[in-house]
Design brief:
- The complex is a heterotrimer.
- By secondary structure, chain A is mostly helical.
- Chain A has one domain.
- Chain A has 13 helices and two strands.
- A two-stranded antiparallel sheet of chain A has the order 1-2.
- In chain B, helix 14 packs across helix 17.
- Chain B starts with a helix and ends with a helix.
- By secondary structure, chain C is an all-alpha fold.
- Chain C has twelve helices and two strands, in the order H-H-H-H-H-E-H-H-H-H-E-H-H-H.
- The chains are: A mainly alpha, B alpha/beta, C mainly alpha.
- The interface between A and B is large, with 50 and 56 residues.
Chain lengths: 324, 393, 337
């Protein structure tokens, strides 16, 4: 019972942000914001970001920051979509080709990472340029799917996919040996290695799993209808957009699994963007407000317990003086 | 561990087999589904290149030139169309193009121009030129610019012989016309989805034209102005959910995502759409009356830049005259299914808006009676009807 | 190995130790030379590919102009990356600095020197803001600088849109005395010499490396961590301000895309030069400078090769991976993250 209460309390800490945003915008719009269509649209818009963030979190759990997510998603979306249309295989073919390409690209990254022993950030910067160029060679005009192949971006399919991926993430990180190994390596790689973990293998597997998440992200991206190719780090905004939600979720939901906190963080950012649009603020003000809210919330999350700590320090000092 | 690996491999292979079988199973039915909406068989409607041999012979006699073409992107819809047109020109004219993508920063544009000059280019067709420094960076290499650089900059560059002038479409007028089309379709509560202001002047002007139209009409209300680069489909979805009273949307860039968002958000029948540029799925929206305005054939802008530059390189004929050193081309407006079909047939095919023979006649070196006035007139006459009448001859 | 104890005289031990020291010194020398290998590889490959055009008189001036901004920013960034920090606000703060300078110049009320000085203060303030977020608000520097970047980009877009619909220009001819190869060369040499001296021979650089090596050890050893972290960010801000000034006069204008992408280019330069992203004792300012030059020569050379626009960035990425694979410090082995 006590454990349950603690869990509910931790969950409420994560949900405070979206609830607060709903309350603020409900007041600002005289209740018009509390509208199922607005909420469903924001939820739908957060599906792709959530799946990409969960993939990035798998790498981040081991201390690896991967900038190639956006590029591999665009590559998977463009090539996968065009192959699916060329083979006439419809939605199953789209899923298959996106998976093959996404997993393949991340496997290559994992292999290079193990071979070269350079930081993931560095390697991913180079691979971003390569993965952006690959679809341009084969399909320079990008990919446009016909309407009947875009079902997966609609409800309820997109929500089913998001729930499946969140559950998969939860199971991998909590109930598999691989997930525990990843956490161990993330906490202290030297001790993990000393304890006998095969670091190379675990890291490669994490890249492959990340590739699965990026593939599904690519699937959701192309299912919106069309994807254009990019160049010169043009895929960064695709990824950066999700980063803020991911870090928000990570820091606000320290005591819950990231399968819950990350989607809540991404959803909150989308809710914020929708709310600011409805209230009539221009996009520049929206960006400023989003950045400010991110900083305020992160500093709150980083400093909770500070007041208690200061009080405890003062008490301790008092006791020490009394004894002296 | 080995056993587990084998298990996972077997599972993956099974899944792959299922998908392949599903794909093969759908192959017979799915091939039609795989076609883009509005796309016809290529051999049925698109024009093929039937340039006469004597035209090619004449063109081959001209000296060879290396020309650098700079565009923001060769992979968006306008970029793909433009590159196709330039490849057509390369096939028939004795020129070699070097394609350079510049990001939207002036610093990168200047670097690209400097490097082009160092690689002994004979001329530059530039885009994203925002300051005089870009033209200065070209040194003595002749340059035709794509967007309008404004009166103040044109004055600053007066006397710079390498600057031949600018060619653009009247983006402001297109935005204004889009507003008018929505108004005439009965739209009074509208939203606009545009790019962050300052990245591209021509795209910004589209938004300004539209906003001015709305401001001039008291019975028209702007519900929302979304400025987020590349996320127009999401913007449409947000508008749809937040403003049930909305009856019109203007998007500064046409995009299949936007067109499909209109369908998936259930806006067909209740909300009208106007865009600048076109998307392959626009035919369906024109048919059901959702799309009331779009434009096409923008590859002609870069083709005009080429012709102005080529004229100068061959015999220093100046085709962009006047104090403003600006040619503002007419834009190809599309307001009906027939217009769209004509554009698909005459523009998006093997033959661009101007074929080799027509272009040859626009070059003073080959056609001594051709003047700058004729050049300007041809640019002004550019419409879908003009294109159809030229092709039917 | 066979369980028998091996007894050695003290002289033998000394000889063995001398051999081990010699091998370690040789390895150290090779490790120090490896970052140059990447630079040499790029230069040789592109010289061959461009038929010598890379080093034509015209193109050398281009290389100087094109690499100037990144080299200056890389010098400043060394002080930040050396202690394990990073700053994603450099691009937006550079744009804002340029806006402030242009606004003051166009007002005709402020002397040029005052306008330039005020402009330099903008990125200093922004970088110090990132430092304060990390030190006092305890926000991880990666996320803190991302958040501040969003704020600054919003501010830049807003002021540019409100003031001039996205573009503010100055007369190119009036300021050619600043956008001048000789002036740039002087400034570049001065910044590199000053940066090198401060980084390698003064407490500022040395303390930054100690903090990057192990923050706790540095604190317990009496290093004032906050002070030296902030100094590092101040230097970065000053360098970004100087780079912004010259970028402004080269472009003769500012737009809301000014400076955009500088933060990612900077990271690419730092990585390509073999500068450790987590800082520490192996941080060398020359690596950052080499990395900046390599990236710029790579971009310039690939453009000179007249390659198709579709593949140019792909080749750049492949070369990046090859160079980094050859030259990056692998001492952390499997423990690299």
């Amino acid at each position: 019972m006590k454990k349950g209460m603690v869990y509910i309390k931790n969950l409420m800490e994560v949900l405070i942000l979206p609830i607060a945003l709903l309350a603020v915008f409900a007041v600002a719009t005289n209740g018009a914001f509390i509208n199922s269509r607005i909420l469903m649209t924001a939820l739908r818009q957060s599906v792709m970001g959530t799946i990409v963030c969960l993939g990035l979190t798998l790498n981040l759990n081991m201390g690896m920051m991967n900038f190639a997510g956006g590029a591999s998603m665009i590559c998977g979306a463009v090539i996968g979509g065009n192959l699916a249309m060329a083979t006439g295989s419809g939605v199953p073919g789209l899923i298959f080709f996106c998976l093959i390409i996404g997993v393949g690209l991340m496997t290559i990254q994992g292999g290079l990472y193990n071979a070269f022993r350079v930081p993931c950030v560095v390697l991913s910067l180079g691979l971003t340029m390569v993965y952006e160029a690959v679809p341009r060679i084969f399909y320079p005009e990008g990919c446009t799917l016909p309407i009947d192949m875009t079902k997966l971006a609609l409800s309820p399919y997109c929500f089913i996919i998001m729930i499946v991926m969140c559950v998969a993430f939860y199971i991998i990180t909590e109930y598999t040996v691989l997930g525990h190994n990843m956490k161990a390596i993330g906490e202290n790689p030297a001790i993990a290695m000393g304890a006998g973990l095969n670091i190379d293998k675990v890291k490669l597997m994490s890249f492959i799993l990340t590739g699965v998440f990026f593939s599904i992200g690519a699937l959701m991206y192309v299912s919106k209808g069309s994807v254009d190719n990019v160049a010169a780090m043009g895929s960064m905004p695709v990824q950066m957009e999700s980063f803020t939600g991911m870090f928000l979720g990570k820091f606000l939901g320290k005591n819950v699994n990231k399968a819950i906190s990350v989607p809540v963080g991404v959803f909150s950012m989308k809710l914020l963007a929708s709310g600011l649009t409805i209230v009539g603020l221009n996009s520049n003000m929206q960006t400023i407000i989003q950045g400010t809210i991110l900083l305020v919330l992160l500093s709150y999350a980083a400093n909770t317990g500070l007041i208690d700590k200061i009080k405890a320090d003062r008490e301790f000092a008092k006791m020490a003086r009394a004894r002296a | 561990m080995k056993k587990q690996l084998k298990k996972w491999t077997a599972l993956l292979l099974c899944v792959a087999m299922v998908f392949v079988m599903a794909g093969c199973g759908n192959a017979g039915d799915g091939k039609d589904d795989g076609k883009k909406d509005g796309q016809k068989q290529e051999d049925e409607t698109k024009l093929t290149d039937t340039t006469a041999a004597d035209v090619d012979e004449t063109l081959a006699k001209a000296p060879h030139f290396n020309i650098t073409v700079m565009l923001g992107s060769f992979t968006d819809s306008q970029g793909v169309e433009t590159k196709k047109a330039l490849e057509y020109i390369e096939e028939h004219f004795n020129v070699t193009f070097n394609y350079v993508e510049t990001s939207n920063t002036t610093e990168n544009t200047i670097a690209a121009i400097e490097t082009a000059v160092a690689s002994d280019t004979d001329g530059i067709i530039g885009a994203c030129v925002k300051t005089a420094a870009c033209v200065q960076a070209a040194g003595d290499v002749p340059m035709v610019n794509q967007p309008d650089i404004g009166e103040a900059m044109t004055k600053e560059l007066a006397g710079k012989e390498n600057y031949l002038g600018s060619v653009c479409e009247d983006d402001y007028a297109q935005g204004y016309a889009a507003g008018k089309a929505l108004y005439e379709a009965g739209c009074r509560k509208v939203c606009i989805a545009r790019m962050t202001v300052g990245i591209s002047e021509s795209i910004d002007n589209r938004g300004l034209g539209f906003l001015d139209f709305v401001a001039e009409h008291d019975d028209m209300e702007l519900l929302a102005d979304n400025q987020s680069r590349g996320q127009y489909a999401d913007a449409v979805a947000t508008f749809a959910s937040a403003f049930p009273e909305m009856d019109g949307i203007f998007c500064v860039i046409a995009n299949d995502g936007v067109s499909q968002a209109m369908v998936t958000e259930g806006l067909v029948g209740s909300v009208k759409l106007a865009t600048v540029g076109y998307a392959s799925s626009d035919k369906q929206l024109l048919e059901n009356g959702t799309l009331v305005y779009c434009t096409g054939g923008k590859a002609a802008i870069t083709m005009t830049c080429f012709l102005a530059l080529y004229n100068h390189l061959l015999d220093e004929s100046g085709m962009i005259d006047g104090e403003t050193k600006l040619i503002t081309r007419n834009s190809m407006e599309i307001k009906s299914v027939e217009d769209f079909e004509a554009m698909e047939k005459y523009v998006v095919g093997d033959v661009p808006p101007y074929n080799a023979e027509e272009m040859m006649n626009m070059v003073h070196y080959f056609n001594e009676e051709f003047t700058a006035g004729d050049f300007a007139e041809i640019c002004n006459n550019y419409t879908i009807d003009d294109l159809m009448s030229r092709r039917s001859k | 190995m066979d369980g028998k104890q091996v007894s050695r005289t003290s002289e033998e031990n000394v000889q063995i130790q001398k051999q081990l020291d010699k091998k370690a010194r040789q390895k150290e020398r090779i490790m120090n030379l490896i970052p140059y290998a990447g630079f040499v590889f790029v230069v040789v490959a592109l010289t061959i590919a461009t038929g010598g055009n890379l080093f034509s008189a015209n193109n050398l001036a281009n290389i100087l102009n094109q690499s100037f901004v990144m080299i200056i920013v890389a010098v400043g960034a060394s002080f930040v990356y050396a202690h394990g920090g990073m700053d994603f606000t450099v691009g937006a703060s550079m744009g804002l600095a340029e806006f402030v300078i242009v606004t003051m110049i166009l007002s005709d009320k402020v002397p040029l020197a005052a306008a330039l000085l005020t402009g330099v203060l903008v990125p200093v303030a922004s970088s110090v803001g990132v430092a304060c977020c990390a030190l006092y608000l305890k926000i991880p520097v990666f996320v803190g600088s991302l958040g501040l970047r969003m704020v600054l980009m919003g501010v830049l877009n807003m002021v540019m849109t409100n003031s001039a619909n996205g573009q503010l220009n100055i007369s190119y001819n009036d300021y050619r005395f600043i956008d001048n190869v000789a002036v740039k060369l002087l400034v570049l040499v001065a910044v590199i010499v000053a940066g090198y001296y401060l980084f390698e021979y003064t407490g500022i650089g040395k303390k930054a490396k100690i903090i990057g090596g192990n923050r706790t050890v540095a604190r317990e050893s009496g290093v004032n961590v906050s002070k030296y972290v902030i100094w590092g960010y101040v230097f970065l801000g000053v360098c970004v301000g100087i780079a912004g000034i010259f970028s402004l006069f080269r472009a003769a204008g500012v737009s809301n895309t000014s400076g955009s992408g500088t933060e990612f280019n900077l990271m690419t330069c730092i990585a390509l030069g073999g500068f450790p992203l987590k800082g520490g004792q192996r941080s060398r300012i020359i690596n950052a400078i080499l990395g900046a030059m390599t990236v710029c020569i790579l971009s310039n050379g690939l453009l000179l090769c007249n390659l198709d626009a579709n593949i140019i960035n792909g080749i750049k990425g492949l070369l990046f991976i090859v160079i980094v694979g050859l030259s990056y410090d692998r001492s952390s082995g499997k423990l690299v993250s």
